[in-house]
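Regression test case RT-17, inverse folding.

Input:
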């Protein structure tokens, strides 16, 4: 399958906000968006997005994973950026509509359809640096994606950066483009210098997250991850893994921990990254102050594999959805709603 995120279905769902209200959403052919060069987003980065997946089971029906939680996270992101907040029902219906429209393009598990709702401020006003965009466009791209673990779960190598933050305390839990632009420089530098896959941002020693995934420590009986605050993205994979870990009898500990504690833990704890794209990916090596530290024996851990499988089984319909995380997509929905 083509590289993640480079192939798109040929329709999008789209809605515009103007005159103080959301206009009726529509399904349209995928095409370049007409955009005024003064659009607020192009100058003042008024944008946020979501990323989640729909799976097509053997019965031919599509299920969306944690639809309403992703809608709620997008509303939070929009509010934190002073963008018009999409109505939850409207956004959820747009997602259902576009998945139904593109249902024939959803590959069978373990592949899936990646969903990318995006909200941009379109007010043409370069004088509005300190004013919100009162016009906006919301659209949903869909992209068939393959299995991240095709060819096996290669353990990842992370640079532990105990100085820089990925984002700011104010915007860390907002899914906005600027956070990714900010993490890019440090990540590219770390890849070039140390050959790592990602940077684990730990400002002042506080272990937070990587550029696009949450970080967990896992032993035979406990899962430890940073407690929720506004400095990092509240991953729904993270939340799901913690819930499943509880079901399996692991002690679930959400607490802040330092780089020193992290380094002390890795001889006895597995480490993993969680996120929609990779589900739960094993970390085999940390690089800290130029020195490589192996996580356990450096190989993918059994607890990580067990928890990943538990979540994937739900995605693929191989285990019951005991937490009601999946939304079945009605087969025929009106083109607009
Ligand atoms: C910065 C960041 N952290 C964590 C995550 C994981 O979030 P989720 O599990 O909801 O995909 C993502 C991916 O969206 C991300 O971009």
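Golden output:
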């Amino acid at each position: 399958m083509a590289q993640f995120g480079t192939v798109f279905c040929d329709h999008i769902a789209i809605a515009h906000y103007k005159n103080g209200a959301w206009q009726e959403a529509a399904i349209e052919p995928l095409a370049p968006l007409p955009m005024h060069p003064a659009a607020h987003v192009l100058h003042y980065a008024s944008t946020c997005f979501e990323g989640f997946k729909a799976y097509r089971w053997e019965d031919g029906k599509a299920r969306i994973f944690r639809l309403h939680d992703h809608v709620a996270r997008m509303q939070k992101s929009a509010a934190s950026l002073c963008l018009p907040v999409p109505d939850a029902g409207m956004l959820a219906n747009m997602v259902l509509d576009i998945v139904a429209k593109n249902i024939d393009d959803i590959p069978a598990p373990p592949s899936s359809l990646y969903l990318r709702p995006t909200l941009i401020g379109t007010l043409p006003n370069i004088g509005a640096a300190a004013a919100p965009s009162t016009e906006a466009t919301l659209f949903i791209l869909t992209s068939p994606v393959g299995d991240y673990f095709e060819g096996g779960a290669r353990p990842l190598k992370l640079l532990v950066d105990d100085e820089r933050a990925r984002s700011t305390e104010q915007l860390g839990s907002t899914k906005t483009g600027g956070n990714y632009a900010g993490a890019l420089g440090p990540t590219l530098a770390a890849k070039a210098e140390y050959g790592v896959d990602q940077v684990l941002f730990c400002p002042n020693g506080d272990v937070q997250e990587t550029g696009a995934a949450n970080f967990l420590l896992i032993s035979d009986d406990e899962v430890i991850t940073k407690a929720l605050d506004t400095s990092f993205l509240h991953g729904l994979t993270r939340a799901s893994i913690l819930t499943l870990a509880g079901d399996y009898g692991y002690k679930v500990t959400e607490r802040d921990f330092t780089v020193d504690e992290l380094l002390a833990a890795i001889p006895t704890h597995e480490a993993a990254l969680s996120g929609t794209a990779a589900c739960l990916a094993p970390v085999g090596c940390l690089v800290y102050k130029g020195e490589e530290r192996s996580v356990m024996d450096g190989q993918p851990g059994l607890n990580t594999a067990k928890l990943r499988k538990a979540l994937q089984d739900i995605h693929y319909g191989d285990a019951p959805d005991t937490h009601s995380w999946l939304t079945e997509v009605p087969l025929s929905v009106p083109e607009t709603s």
